[in-house]
Amino acid sequence: MIFSINQILSPDEITEIKKVLARAEFVDGKLTAGWHAKLVKNNQQLKAGTSQTELKSKIRAALNKNALFQSAIRPKSIHSLLFSRYDVGMSYDTHVDNALMGGSSGLYRSDVSFTLFLNSPQDYQGGELVIEGVQSEQSYKLEAGSAIVYPSTTLHRVNPVTKGTRLVVVGWVQSVIRDGSDREILFDLETARRAIFAKSGKTAEFDLVSKSIANLLRKWADV
Predict the structure, then answer these.
(1) Lowest CB count within 10 Å: 54, 118, 123, 206, which one?
(2) Residue 86 backbone phi and psi in degrees, to 5
C-alpha cells in the first residue's frame, strides 16, 4: 500500500528543522548504504551528533501523533532515520532497501519506508522519488511537511536534482503486522469502523467490526 500524508510537520517545525540543518555538517551518503547500493547512491546525510538526536525525536513525535500513519502502518519501531540532502547532480539510482537495519543496539526489520519532504518542490528541479511497479512507475515530489509511505520491498530511485537542493528525511518502520496485505485489511476495517461510528455511533455493527479488528490483531501481531 502506497499513500501520502499531508502536513505531518507544521510550517514552524519545518523552519526550525531547516535552521538546524543549515548549520549542520553533512557527510557522504554512501556511508550508510549497503555494498550494492553504494554503487548508485550519490547524496549527503547529516553527520551523527546531538542535533541529529534532537531532530529524530521531533520526527518520531510527529509520526506517533499522526492518526493515519498509526492506523495504516501500526508501527512497532520507527528506526534508522536519515536526514538527506541532494545538491545539483546528485541522485540515488534504482535500489531496494535493506531488509534488516541497525547494529550493536539491535536489528530492526524494514517493513515500510517513508520519505518526508522538508522543502518545497519549487525549491528544486528534478529529485522526484520514483517507485517502480511490475508494469509502471509513479513519481512523487510533495510539499514540505508531507510524506510518501511505501513498502520497503519495492524498487525505487531518486531522480537527479538539476537545480536547487532537495532536503528530506527518510526512515523505516518495523510494523506490529509483518504482512502488508494484512495491514491493509486492518486499515480498511478501521476506516469502516470509524465511518460507522461517525454516522451512527456505537452500534451492533460497530461492535462486530471492533471485535474482528481485535481478533485479527491477536492472530497477526508480531510482538
Answers:
(1) 54
(2) -120, 115
Mean pLDDT of the 114-139 span: 96
What is the spatial distance between Cα 30 and Cα 68, in angstroms, rounded to a whole number? 32
Calpha distance 37→183 (Å, rounded): 28
pLDDT above 80: residue 104? no
Name the pairing type of β-strands 3-5 and 147-151.
Answer: antiparallel
Return the domain boundaries, the chain.
3-175, 180-220
Q: What pLDDT sits at residue 50?
A: 72
pTM score of the predicted model: 0.94
SS3 149: strand
Distance (Å, whole) CA 95 – CA 106:
24
CB 142 within 8 A of CB 167: no
CATH T-level topology, domain 3-175:
Jelly Rolls (2.60.120)
43 contacts 85 by C-beta, under 8 angstroms: yes
Helix 50-64 and helix 11-23, axial crossing angle in degrees, nearest 10: 160
Type of residue at 110 = S
pLDDT over threshold 80, residue 198:
yes
